[in-house]
Amino acid sequence: xxxxxxxxxxxxxxxxxxxxxxxxxxxxxxxxxxxxxxxxxxxxxxxxxxxxxxxxxxxxxxxxxxxxxxxxxxxxxxxxxxxxxxxxxxxxxxxxxxxxxxxxxxxxxxxxxxxxxxxxxxxxxxxxxxxxxxxxxxxxxxxxxxxxxxxxxxxxxxxxxxxxxxxxxxxxxxxxx
Length: 177
Description:
Blueprint: H1 5-20, H2 28-35, H3 39-51, E1 55-58, E2 64-67, H4 76-85, H5 100-103, H6 107-123, H7 126-146, H8 148-151, H9 167-176
Antiparallel strand pairs: 1-2
């Protein structure tokens, strides 16, 4: 099992859908603008998510994607597996980077690790991630208003009179002495 940028983008996109698609689909162009991901990349990604039954597409003006199930019923593991299986050239089975001879001594360790990671990802629902996002999005606005550094005007830093402000000015003063 590998956690790739593709699976991370998929989780971000699904959480965005869950938080924004109340009653209407979310267009890939809007996701593209918010997260600076190309629309063509999102189209390929969402194709795999749609095939896995995680999202539903709506065509036409005002179209886009919505969740196929409730946010509580979709786990991060579901998203990761769907995004990696839907990858061009991907398979339904997780790929191990080591050959059997290279990893024979530690195969059980890595199998247990992968199992633990997938178990954890399966325990986290999209609804939990959405509930964690709301306070984070509002936090910078409140921090800017209360920050004393933001209220103070920056003072220009000018050299004091009679103090050389460069190596050349210092050299010129030394030459005069």
